[in-house]
Write a structure and sequence with these properties.
This protein is α/β, with parallel strands linked by helices. The chain has two domains: 6-173, Thiolase/Chalcone synthase (Peroxisomal Thiolase, Chain A, domain 1, 3-Layer(aba) Sandwich); 179-329, Peroxisomal Thiolase, Chain A, domain 1, CATH 3.40.47.10. It has helices at residues 23-27, 34-41, 55-70, 94-102, 118-131, 155-158, 208-212, 222-242, 261-271, 282-285, 292-302, and strands spanning 6-15, 20-22, 45-47, 79-83, 108-112, 138-145, 163-173, 179-187, 195-196, 219-220, 253-256, 311-318, 322-329. The strands form four sheets. It has a five-stranded mixed β-sheet, sandwiched between helices. The structure holds oxa(dethia)-CoA.
């Protein structure tokens, strides 16, 4: 439960690379069709970051916009948390690259790895530093260059993912009804083998053999992940409302992880909310893993879909398995 302060989002930003990879492009690369991709996933195109740039590039662009929007200098940032499954390197942490990139001289930081739930987990961890009074300005970023770990000869995964980043600034507010109000997180490690990248870690360090066996790419049992994700994301989205004595009527906006339009629709139905209250951008960006929720939040703000006092629910489900939801009241 929150302490003396609540942590509220006071600025949002997103960065999407320019280059588009459309379903028509993918039809030329693998045995797939625009019709299959659209009807099974809801995706029409995704963005691809150029070679020679890593996730930190997108994170830094989003972080700079946050400073601009909020009108603050980089040395006012206390803490930087980057959620990513595609750090520039195993180490140093991408948060260190962002700290240097924006010149946040006073900040410390770290990366948080929770796959599709990375941003949600990072948001709540960041909020705790604000709620305790330890920090006043925490930058939480979700950034993934999924194209760096995708096998573009595997039609079962290459159609799903894209590159992108989003960021939020968390600051203390005294109103106990504003900012992060509640969260619900779960993990089931037994699902690990359904969605993973086996190579490049300490278990299977990169060798010619691991590369020949394509262990440096995403491996997914799509059906198994789908079977887990549909009920899990729907459960946590509905349960966070129930435990706060709320119904879908009370929710102004639902911002789900963008992995599959069918998973999003199932969660919205379970919450009892209509399409007009659901943020969907999977058609334009695909699944950007840690980027999906902050990108969706930023677009909702840009489109004027949120006003002070609105209740919003964020939710995700993915590799780990990890799943979770967060309840916030908008304060700006
Ligand atoms: O954020 C990370 C979490 N990840 C997810 O949430 C992903 C969850 N899973 C999914 O979204 C869906 O399972 C997929 C979109 C990956 C697949 O949709 P599906 O309705 O579960 O299809 P399926 O895996 O049951 O495959 C149906 C058929 C198969 O052919 P057969 O065995 O029926 O002959 C696949 O080989 O579709 C085939 N297929 C494709 N066909 C054309 C698989 N990928 C493609 C493709 N184009 N890209």
């Amino acid at each position: 439960m929150p302490g003396r302060w609540n942590a509220a989002v006071t600025a949002v930003a997103k960065y999407l690379p320019e280059r588009r990879l459309t379903n028509a492009d993918l039809e030329k690369m693998v045995d797939t069709s625009d019709e299959w991709i659209r009807t099974r996933t809801g995706i029409r195109e995704r963005r691809i970051l150029e070679k020679g740039l890593g996730s930190s590039h997108m994170a830094i662009q989003a972080a700079r916009q946050i400073l601009d929007h909020r009108g603050i200098g980089p040395d006012e940032i206390d803490l930087i948390i980057v959620s990513t499954v595609t750090p520039d390197m195993m180490f140093p942490a991408t948060a260190c690259l962002v700290q240097d990139g924006i010149g946040a001289k006073r900040a410390w930081g770290f990366d948080l790895s929770a796959a599709c739930c990375g941003f949600l987990y990072a948001l709540v961890v960041g909020a705790k530093f604000v709620e305790t009074g330890a920090h006043r300005k925490v930058l939480v970023i979700g950034a993934d260059k999924m194209s760096s770990i995708i096998d573009y000869t595997d039609r079962e995964t290459c159609v799903l993912f894209g590159d992108g980043a989003g960021a939020v600034l968390l600051e203390p507010v005294e109103d106990p009804e504003t900012g992060l109000l509640d969260f619900l997180f779960q993990v089931d490690g037994a699902g690990g083998k359904s969605l993973y990248m086996p190579g490049g870690g300490s278990l299977n360090p990169s060798t010619h053999e691991t590369v020949d066996q394509k262990m440096h790419f995403v491996h997914q049992d799509g059906r198994a992940v789908f079977k887990f994700a549909v009920p899990s994301m729907a459960d946590v989205s509905a349960e966070i409302l129930r435990q706060n004595n709320l119904t879908g009527e009370d929710v102004a906006l639902f911002i789900p992880h963008q992995a599959n339009l069918r998973i999003i629709d199932a969660a919205a139905r379970r919450m009892g909310i209509g399409d007009d209250k659901v943020v969907v951008n999977i058609d334009r960006y695909g699944n950007t893993t840690c980027g999906t929720i902050p990108i969706g939040l930023t677009e909702a703000v840009e489109e004027g879909r949120l006003k002070k006092g609105d209740l919003l629910v964020l939710a995700s489900a993915g590799a780990g398995f990890t799943w979770g939801s967060a309840l916030l009241r908008w304060g700006i």
